[in-house]
């Protein structure tokens, strides 16, 4: 029997028993709850809100954070969870990232004790949903050009502006909104029931269909000082959260690639043409070999990055290295896997093209290829090439 694991470098030996136990728990959750349903969810453009509590019960929301009901897991354990969730679908991993890496991290790192107590336990349990409002219709890769403002009004604030491509915004209970003030860039916690807050889903979409992305409108939203994240000043604060999400992405992309490879290998062994399984053909075997090489290398990149993160020595350009490489290669793996299916590969009966379409969005958000290339270019040369 062929080896379907793709673990030809015996990477499992590099993980602890506890890390593998967590991975297997998440893998089983995906097999039981995501894999049987994802075709319908994707086709219907439906995000299953009910899985939030299920993921919370498994400790998957804000799992890298400590206290306030969070699991306090390591960076590597968080990465393994992202890999397994994205093997199910990028939209499911994106939910975990938006909730934990973005919204919860913003509150945990920059919020007051009162804010943490109010929001984090419910978010860790999946009872409350958060979103992260940074990107705008005219300010994507350059957040310094954002137009959303927060102006002082007596002892409070008034927010006006718009945000776009905000995950979970239509079902969120609280929005972390970044806005320009006379004090520089600040973060605000906006309960989504506040007068002047509206969110509309962006649709139709060709990818991330089992996920929610929305446009937010902020019209004369009045907030007290208790809404301000007290320790969030300047772009460093949202970029800290973005780096948490980018880190998870480098693991997640390899999960999508692995699932596409496994589907293609199974198909290659079952599908017969010219009297042979197509897996016996040289060109098919070349495709499978190329997939395994990139999955193994990408997983090594993610694991080493995770160990650096757990050791507290990870640099931001190393995160860009992993996000840029792993998502780019995962897309190629999924496209190559689709080719093995021939015409059948464009249906939702098989996962590779769904993964590839999702990964086009993953490749764009949390920093495009171009942005991460320039981050690395500056690290290499010492010369900033940003416009």
UniProtKB/TrEMBL annotation:
Membrane spanning stretches: none
rRNA-binding keyword on record: no
Span of domain Acyl-CoA dehydrogenase/oxidase C-terminal: 233-380
Domain Acyl-CoA dehydrogenase/oxidase N-terminal stretches: 17-127
UniProt-listed GO biological process terms: fatty acid beta-oxidation using acyl-CoA dehydrogenase; fatty-acyl-CoA biosynthetic process
Keywords (A to Z) from UniProt: FAD, Flavoprotein, Oxidoreductase, Transit peptide
SUPFAM superfamilies listed in its UniProt record: Acyl-CoA dehydrogenase C-terminal domain-like, Acyl-CoA dehydrogenase NM domain-like
Gene3D superfamilies documented for this protein: Acyl-CoA dehydrogenase/oxidase, N-terminal domain, Butyryl-CoA Dehydrogenase, subunit A, domain 2, Butyryl-CoA Dehydrogenase, subunit A, domain 3
Lineage: superkingdom: Bacteria
Similarity section: Belongs to the acyl-CoA dehydrogenase family.
Protein name according to UniProt: Glutaryl-CoA dehydrogenase
Organism: Planotetraspora silvatica
